[in-house]
Amino acid sequence: MENGAPNHGVDTGSTITIKGILSLLMANIDETNNKRVISLGMGDPSAYSCFHTTHVAEEAVVDAIQSEKFNGYAPTVGLPQTRRAIAEYLSRDLPYKLSSDDVFVTSGCTQAIDVALAMLARPGANVLLPRPGFPIYELCAGFRNIEVRYFDLLPEKGWEVDLNAIEALADQNTVGLVVINPGNPCGNVYSYEHLKKIAETAKRLRILVIADEVYGHLAFGKNPFVPMGIFGSEVPVLTLGSLSKRWIVPGWRLGWFVTSDPCGAFREPKTIKRIKKYFDILGGPATFIQAAVPHILEQTEEVFFKRTINLLKQASDVCCEKIKEIRCISCPHKPEGSMAVMVKLNLSVLEDISDDIDFCFKLAKEESVIILPGTAVGLKNWLRITFAVDPSFLEEGLRRTKSFYQRHAKQQILRC
Ligand SMILES: *Cc1c(COP(=O)(O)O)cnc(C)c1O
Ligand SMILES: *[C@@H]1O[C@H](CO)[C@@H](O)[C@H](O)[C@H]1NC(C)=O
Predict the structure, then answer these.
(1) Which domain holds residue 145?
(2) Domain boundary at 276, 299, 322, which?
(3) How far is the CA of 117 from the centre of ligand 1 (A)?
(4) What are the TM regions of this chain, as residue ranges (predicted)?
């Protein structure tokens, strides 16, 4: 093992999943210390009453069930009214209109990721992924025998894409590049100009852009959310999204795979046939959830969105303030969107912590606080902190992280 560091059962040689590592951390919690468990690890705020979905969404689902019209199978690509509603919802922010045929309803954004990679797979293909990133991409690519190549996101530039790296990595077998905006795990929101540069780079390299916009509209900093599909006439864009994050209903499993491609690269009959065939084997979300989508997308009140944005902004502010008090971690870029932030570990101020994994396992054991080691998202000796939790949990979690630091700090550093 590297440096003889304890790896706490984490197999860093293979693809790590966030859920996998979080369950190992949970198992490491010492119940005898009687502390309530605080998880800043998982991006599912629905566990906290302050992050509650809108009654509009709940009523839409109840109505759909009670109508008794949606107990049967839906078309495998999704109900027509659901596809139309998603096309209209996304078209609000685009310079062209999407049609229902551009939209395929998936079981969450996770399945949309799988569809995108399945559709792009061919012998020898490679895909460019951001680092840090979202491990599901690597996992899906692995099952499809697609090679993954990583380009860095640059913390000192607000986690912008290293465009030079993209140029250097791409070759004739590169099928696409993934852009997650607003960003997970970094909490960044890209400017229009940066997205334009990404689109121009992809166009020059003749690769398409897979735009993971599962956090679409969850932006609370200086940059507004700009969908990549705006550049769909320059370069074909596959837009992936879901209700999970903006509506705080990840368990409803309602997502979409959308060809944001007004020039029609995806409208070739052979391509459409292939996509449709693939959906025949998938089985999307429950029909009544699909049936609720038009009402949810058309009727959700602006105040619900504003409230969520305000909660996330306040939580991220608390998070950044508390982080400043903990000397072993620092935040190079204040989050402007999504639900998580990356912070850098400074191991040189710690006495007996070998790396991010060791930090997180000891923190779980001693303080019953769960934080995701950066290794899980591709960045060793960083941590991903999810701030979309109840503010009292967030404060207590970071207070305990601070006392953990103080117990493990190098003594000469604590004194000065
Ligand atoms: C949460 C998340 C997903 C998965 O979304 P679901 O709708 O829950 O399947 C995909 N991509 C990113 C970046 C995410 O954070
Ligand atoms: C880590 O902390 C030490 C001691 O405070 C400091 O000198 C060093 O610059 C820090 N390193 C980083 C990368 O922040």
Answers:
(1) 55-299
(2) 299
(3) 15
(4) none
